[in-house]
Design brief:
The chain is mainly beta. It contains no helices and 4 strands. The radius of gyration is 11 Å and the shape is globular. The protein is 0% helix and 46% strand. A 4-stranded antiparallel beta sheet has the order 1-4-2-3, with no helix packed on it.
């Protein structure tokens, strides 16, 4: 919905690729570092249609998924 999101958090910062999920709605994905700072954004992606690895540029502490837009 417009006022909710999903966060995938790691116990330690890691070089992770964006996971493929059975989500067919476009989302904006935020890559968050260990200090909680957004270090990278991937707008308007459909997680079910990720066909290649999308890696963070630096180790991430979490991915945050928000409704696109």
């Amino acid at each position: 919905s417009d006022d909710t999101g999903v966060m995938i958090a790691f116990t330690m910062p890691t070089m992770a690729s964006l996971p493929t999920m059975q989500v067919f709605t476009p989302v904006d994905v935020l890559f968050v570092d260990n200090q909680g700072i957004i270090m990278q954004m991937l707008p308007n992606v459909v997680p079910a249609e990720i066909y290649q690895d999308i890696m963070a540029k630096e180790p991430v502490k979490a991915f945050v998924y928000l409704k696109a837009g």
